[in-house]
């Protein structure tokens, strides 16, 4: 049984981007981070993203607005960032405070610079199978499967969870890779039996250690997207690692799994956008 750590996959993606940027004759890619307020989760992700960009030679600019920023003022500033030719990618922390017209931001963002897929046009492209800026978390799952050399054509994949953040876009991305995808949710009858049909099982449920070994067929690849805290306050995934790993051929841990790959996906998207914009 192989434990696939996120750090291994993140490192491989970072090295590839770094090599491409070092050879570039068109300058360095640039990511603009837009943050409203001082949410601890945003600050921590921002620090991780900044560090990841630095490792590969991507420049970062951070635009911080007070939590009570006026809608008009914010949209005007956002338009300026969006139109700046030096900016290749934009990461906007969401949800935005309620006085801000989030829909206007989603509609306005340049789809090429939309490196975390907030634009409805980019999400439509995920469903069409033509998106180059898929949302970072589902893309991190795809990167992990690619890194592990798991060929998806003809495979049965079960995705547990149908949110627009993870489950649905991920299912579409796996479908594009010719997998036969079953999307499961809270009303799925006999979920363990449905999951046991899968060659690849992906958990994006938000319930601590719900997916036990009883849900896993012998030899399955199990990818855990969940980030939860258990009753003792420890960080854990949706998968019960101990029992699932007795059956799985490959499993990702939490912490240190999918979550560790998301900033490298962001890096990959900014880098690719830079080269497309300068082609
Ligand atoms: P969400 O919006 O709460 O959706 C959860 C999904 O799981 C829903 O579709 C729900 O079904 C389904 N579900 C809930 N209980 C179930 C049960 N008992 N049996 C079967 N399905 C059940 O959550 P999310 O935003 O997709 O996030 C899922 C998990 O991924 C969370 O732990 C979150 O923290 C984590 N996450 C991780 C990252 C990362 O970077 N690693 C990023 C984003 C999210 P219904 O639709 O029927 O309600």
Structural account:
The chain is α/β, with parallel strands linked by helices. The chain folds into 2 domains: 26-112, Rossmann fold; 136-259, Rossmann fold. It is built from 10 helices and 11 strands. It has helices at 6-22, 40-56, 71-83, 102-108, 120-128, 136-147, 167-176, 191-196, 241-245, 262-277; strands at 2-3, 30-36, 59-65, 89-92, 156-160, 180-184, 200-203, 221-224, 228-229, 235-236, 250-251. Strands 1-11-8-7-5-6 form a 6-stranded parallel beta sheet. A 3-stranded parallel beta sheet has the order 3-2-4, sandwiched between helices. β2 (30-36), α2 and β3 (59-65) form a beta-alpha-beta unit. The longest helix is centred in the N-terminal third of the chain and has 17 residues, at 6-22. The mean pLDDT is 97. Bound molecules: NADP nicotinamide-adenine-dinucleotide phosphate. The site of NADP nicotinamide-adenine-dinucleotide phosphate has 26 residues, from loops.
């Amino acid at each position: 049984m192989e434990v696939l750590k996120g750090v291994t996959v993140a490192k491989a993606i970072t090295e590839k981007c770094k090599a491409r940027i070092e050879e570039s004759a068109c300058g360095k890619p640039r990511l603009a981070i837009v943050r409203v307020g001082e949410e601890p989760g945003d600050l921590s992700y921002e620090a991780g993203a900044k560090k990841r960009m630095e490792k590969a030679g991507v420049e970062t600019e951070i635009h911080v607005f007070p939590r009570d920023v006026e809608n008009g003022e914010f949209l005007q500033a956002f338009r300026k960032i969006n139109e700046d030719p030096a900016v290749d990618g934009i990461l906007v922390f969401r949800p935005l405070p309620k006085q801000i017209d989030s829909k206007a931001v989603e509609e306005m963002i340049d789809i090429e610079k939309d490196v975390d897929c907030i634009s409805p046009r980019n999400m439509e492209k995920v469903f069409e199978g033509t998106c180059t800026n898929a949302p970072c978390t589902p893309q991190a799952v795809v990167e992990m499967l690619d890194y592990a050399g798991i060929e998806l054509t003809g495979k049965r994949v079960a995705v547990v969870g149908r949110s627009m953040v993870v489950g649905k876009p991920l299912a579409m991305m796996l479908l594009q890779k010719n997998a036969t995808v079953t999307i499961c949710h809270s009303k799925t009858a006999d979920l363990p039996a449905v999951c046991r049909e899968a060659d690849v099982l992906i958990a994006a449920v938000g319930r601590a250690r719900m997916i036990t070994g009883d849900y896993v067929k012998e030899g399955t690849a199990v990818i855990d997207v969940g980030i939860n805290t258990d009753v003792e306050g420890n960080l854990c995934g949706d998968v019960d690692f101990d029992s699932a790993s007795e059956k799985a051929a490959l499993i990702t841990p939490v912490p240190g799994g999918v979550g560790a790959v998301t900033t490298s996906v962001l890096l990959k998207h900014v880098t690719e956008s830079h080269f497309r914009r300068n082609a």
